[in-house]
Amino acid sequence: MENKKAGNIHVRFASIDDNEKLLKIERESAQEGSIWLVAFREDFFGRLKYFEEGFIMIAEDAYDIIGCIGVGIDNLIVNGEIKKAIYLFGLRTNPKYRLKVARWLKSIIQELQNLLGPTDFDFGYASVKADNIASKKILKHMGFSTTAILDFYACPVRKTSQEKSVFVEREVDLETILDLYKPLEKDHDLLLQGTKAFEVMITERRLWLFKTEGAYALVLDTSGEQDFGITRLSKGLRAFQLLAQGTLSPLVRIPKMNERLRSWDVLLFGWDDIRSARKIVRKIHRCAWEEGITLINFSRDRSLGSMKGAVGSLSFRIPFEIMIYEKNSINRGSRPIIRTPTI
User: Which GO MF term does the entry hold, naming one (predicted)?
Assistant: First the structure.
């Protein structure tokens, strides 16, 4: 793609030469809300490896990068049918150019429309923290609307018992993963139809499978790749953090401010009874503790109810809105979504 010009703003594909500048912008651009989060990564382009296709677009002037956005393309299953979806992620603005947000976004959105307009896709989607008003406003301007709420439960890692009845598998193969996902296709949405994301995780040995009678969990180790830090908390959460650091250590890893945090993401979590679910959770905590992990992130479509009974009261619910732009009708209905590994 050749450089496009709108006033003095240029839009182009990002290259590996932009990596350090993009990482710096990301570190200086916290996701705002009651919890301010900032990413710590070594490779800004790392997330693209999980998509069948993808790219990063940047807007710049003669002096610096103004902002960027990531685009991932995959086939997802919606209402039992395969749909081509475009995922927008990593929307960041260089703090030095906050007053130019409207201008650079207008330029980059226009270029995206030019690129994706002729593309054969069914819908676009994005995930954004429910209290991130600015990002939601931008997506609404682009024609996106909220279709589901995915509740994340951030759990500080606890030093728990061994739970010998729970089996842990580190050499997870693709067939095992597909056996877990396949039954969900009939009544859940946004499942990956392709296998590239899982193949990458298997190759890099980032998956853990926890199993016991009546429950299972598939866990993605994101440490070292998608680390993040907390830069600001609401007064209530800050007070709890300080209290917990003084009373719960050394049996609980309470995240500190501006600390680089390693985390695990629970991609799938299923159970027949709550006791089995709690056994799985305790085993995940024990393994995470031994691996030096600080936070475990569970997630669930809000329509399915709370996970507090399974994950415990020492967890922080962070709602994310899943916003969708329909190019072609996708007939979502009221089915809950499964968090894809790329969200």
Answer: acyltransferase activity, transferring groups other than amino-acyl groups
Nearest-angstrom CA–CA distance, 68 and 253:
34
So what's the pLDDT on residue 6? 44
Cα separation of 80 and 192, whole Å? 11
Q: Where are the beta strands (DSSP E) in the chain?
A: 4-6, 9-13, 35-40, 53-60, 65-78, 81-93, 123-129, 145-156, 167-169, 191-192, 207-212, 215-221, 227-233, 263-271, 295-301, 316-326
As a whole number of angstroms, the distance between CA 184 and CA 189 comes to 8
| pLDDT the model gives residue 181 | 95
- Spans of the chain below 50 pLDDT: 2-6
Same domain membership, residue 137 and residue 32: yes
- Give the structural domain span for 254: 152-320
Same domain, 171 and 305: yes
Number of domains in the chain: 2
Same-domain check for residues 143 and 14: yes
Give the tens place of pLDDT for each residue, 23-68: 888 888 766 666 777 777 889 899 999 999 999 999 888 888 988 8
Q: What are the tokens at 227?
A: 């680390």
Q: What does the pLDDT read at residue 140?
A: 87
Can you give the pTM of this predicted structure? 0.88
Q: Are residues 140 and 249 in the same domain?
A: no
